[in-house]
Description:
globular; ketol-acid reductoisomerase activity; magnesium; KARI; alpha/beta; Rossmann fold; ten-stranded mixed beta sheet; 10 strands; amino-acid biosynthesis; N-(1-d-carboxylethyl)-l-norvaline Dehydrogenase, domain 2
Amino acid sequence: MTSTTSDLHSSVFTTETMAVPGGTETILRGGRHLFGLLPGAFAGIERIGVLGWGPQGRAQAQNLRDSLDGTGITVTVGLRPGSSSADDARAHGFTEADGTLGGWLDVAATSDLVILLIADAALAAHHREVFAVLKPGAVIGLSHGFLLGHLRATGGDFPPGHAVIAVCPKGMGDSVRRLYLQGVDVDGAGINSSIAVHADPDGRAGDVALGWSVALGSPYTFATTLRDEYLSDIVGERAILLGAVHGLVECLHRHFLLAGDDPVTAYERSCENVTGPIAATISRDGLSAVRAACADTAAFDRAYTAAYAPARDLVAEIYDEVADGTELRSVILAEQRLADRPLSRIGGTAMWRAGNEVRARRGTRDLAIDPLTAGLFVATMTAQVDELAARGHAWSEIVNESVIEAVDSLLPYMHARDIAHMVDHCSRTARLGTRRWGPRFQSAYEQVVLPAVDAPADTGLVEAFTANPVHQALAAAAKLRPAVDISVA
């Protein structure tokens, strides 16, 4: 059968309910104490094939191997012939000699669970080759719903007789591995994941998906559908996770320079503010705490109310283009156009040269939250939250895709390096989307928002923010937050 609901049931793991606005959701609290249950969850699966060695492939293959050590379940990495990643896979312990490294189609043909972690555009181009070699009854695993969107747009479908599941970590691959390793010492450290059971011909797919999530080290697993996952994920990449935050800091750095700040101060008030005190405050105490932490609450309110509607309009436009397939087609076309040359880097503007000096003087003084930067950032984040809620997404998905992934996975990396570095080192799908939508956000901030920030605040919008149900949802999710922050070298 094909699933269109976001149920979470298990005959192996003990789930629990979490109170969210308007009701409850069923979730699974993870932890290494559950590793002993993994053989039961993976009953009938002797070989897991991970196709691809990008950030997610590298992280997930290692986490699965380590969690399943001693169970008799083998994790094998499959790469395309001549892949430049083969040496790195060998360096991380996957080798041809012990049968844990091979050609991608060979691995697909001999695995009971085939996890497709090759790039989105490559998967769109080559999925038929993988489907053609699958063992009867093999489980198809995804960590992104992009392929479903592509199949629907092209009239394709998953092959019958195969379970189709997704486990989607709410963070970049390096976070998935780094927090898993931290979890050796702190049980529960990891990246939250959503799961989706899209097809379940024999009724066991839900436990396989939950076992996969637990084995990745997810401290908190929640249910979604494959369609909702790719909609919220791709929208988030183009909005608050990457596109919008890049457009925001480029706009604000220029604004502060024109107001008389030197380049380092302008960087601190824009980029450093978002990745530092604003992100840390949201992670620790929630969205409303940012407003409370501003010395000039009125300035925050003016910035918030100036930015909310323009940001919401852009998020809604992105959602529509993802939902109708336009955004997915643009990624595939761009991949074809750029097949023989790398994407240009975006970190060439003058603002990024100030980042090294800013990072060098960290710890010498406390950086206060800038109310203008905070108002614009929180308005954009809330606009994404509200748009996903209006489109019917579950609250766990909303807060993970719009808030938790940002402040507990991506922004810490941006803080350690800078936002430009993050944009240039994420997935191709995210990089392409950021280049398309980042300038749209930047232009909206410059042309619509900043000219309005001195106008009186809209008290109705401020009251809607303070009463927003996202605060309740975040408070519930915070109870499941790992006890450690991600360590970024």
